[in-house]
Design brief:
The chain is an alpha/beta fold. The protein has two domains: 209 residues, Rossmann fold (3-Layer(aba) Sandwich); 96 residues, UDP-galactose 4-epimerase, domain 1 (Alpha-Beta Complex). It has twelve helices and 16 strands. The strands form five sheets. Strands 3-2-1-4-5-6-11 form a seven-stranded parallel sheet, with helices on both faces. The longest helix has 22 residues. The protein is globular and about 55 Å long. 46% of the residues are buried.
């Protein structure tokens, strides 16, 4: 793939899944630092509206709306023509994987394999970020999760764990390319990333809660609500990614990326209600009803951030209450991105309903 511009000088960056939730925040950041950015996104969960207004007419943003395999096959010479590749294209979220296991597994494993093969064939000096997930830790009964911990999955009869396995294979691949070929690849394991442009279709808790609170509907807390998660604003997460790729000491390594402050899901519901001054009530919903029979939820999930902190001095800057307010503003029609406020298209508002 080429960026189609033939420009020289600026960093050339490919973002797969660039029209998605995390991808679009990253694209904004990369454009702001002066990169020429190519987005490849099949719009399965990404949305064009997420990139609305990003193109300043300079030609530094090129969007290719097709799946990655097709883009790699059909587009121009080289994934290796890029200085950096952020591979965020993936089947996202436990709910989607339960609903669509075959395509989710295929998307997560085959596209990553094809991308890495292509980068290597094109010269292997491209720095590659592989997006992974805290799901990779599975249901290990340990807290916090450290990058070198053992992982524990349920049986293959429970499709929930296929997501974790597919992401683990991506991680193995990326590290094998580093070890065997010196490909400068970094794995980011995201922990419960939240913020504007995240939609609730795929089971994500915060957009579901904010949408319910705005509508005055009951907020559905699954299980007993005592399970905990650590939520990190997507704008903080996006900042960490280029910094991880920049440092050669990070190449070939896996990093937890997120916040390490636990919040119970019941407390999250209360916080959303209070921050948004909503009249919603929180109600408990059994896991079987929420996800179907046999679903195994994690009681807690907290990252050990020592490796990330020592590598890039990462500290999240945006607090949860601010994120809740910004998600609500985005859902009600104002998009709040690092101080800038603008209106998304009607299309993006329409996609938020949960
Ligand atoms: N959850 C909930 N209500 C919802 C969606 C999710 O109570 O409408 C719970 C879910 O069961 C889990 C937590 O919130 O315990 C976080 O869910 P999410 O899907 O956002 O992330 P993950 O399960 O991957 O941590």
């Amino acid at each position: 793939m080429t960026d189609g511009q033939g420009q020289r000088g600026a960093r050339r960056t490919l973002v797969t899944g660039g029209a998605g939730f995390i991808g679009s925040h990253l694209v904004r950041l990369l454009l702001a630092r002066g990169d020429r950015v190519v987005v490849v996104d099949d719009l399965s969960t990404g949305r064009r509206e997420n990139l609305a207004g990003f193109d300043d007419g300079s030609g530094r943003l090129v969007c290719v709306y097709t799946d990655l395999a097709t883009a790699l096959r059909e587009q121009g010479p080289a994934a290796g023509a890029f200085d950096e590749v952020y591979h965020l294209a993936a089947a996202v979220g436990v709910r989607l994987v339960i609903d669509e296991p075959i395509s989710s597994i295929e998307t997560n494993v085959m596209q990553t394999a094809a991308l890495l093969r292509r980068v290597l064939a094109d010269g292997a000096c491209t720095r590659v970020m592989i997006a992974s997930s805290s799901e990779v830790y599975g249901k290990a009964d340990k807290s916090p999760f450290s990058e070198e911990d053992d992982v524990v999955y349920g049986p293959t009869s429970k499709s929930r764990w296929s997501y974790a396995c597919s992401k683990a294979i991506d991680e193995y691949l990326s590290q094998a390319y580093f070890q065997k070929h010196g490909l400068p690849a970094v794995v980011a394991r995201f922990f419960n990333t939240v913020g504007p442009r995240q939609v609730g279709h795929y089971g994500m808790v915060l957009p579901n809660f904010v949408a319910a609170a705005l509508a005055g509907r009951d907020i559905e807390v699954y299980g007993d609500g005592r399970q905990t998660r650590c939520f990190c604003d997507v704008r903080d997460v996006a900042q960490a990614l280029p910094r991880l790729l920049e440092s050669s000491a990070c190449h070939g390594r896996v990093f937890n990326v997120g916040s390490d402050v636990p919040v119970s899901i019941g407390a999250l519901a209360d916080r959303v209600i209070s921050v948004l001054a909503s009249r919603s009530r929180r109600v408990l919903v059994a896991y079987d009803r929420a996800y179907g029979p046999g679903f195994e939820d994690l009681k807690q999930r907290q990252p050990d951030l020592r490796r990330l902190r020592s590598a890039i001095g990462f500290e999240p800057a945006i607090g949860l209450d601010q994120t809740i307010r910004d998600v609500a503003s985005w859902m009600t029609g104002e998009e709040v991105i690092r101080g800038a406020v603008r209106s998304p298209s009607a299309g993006s508002r329409g996609a938020v309903a949960t």
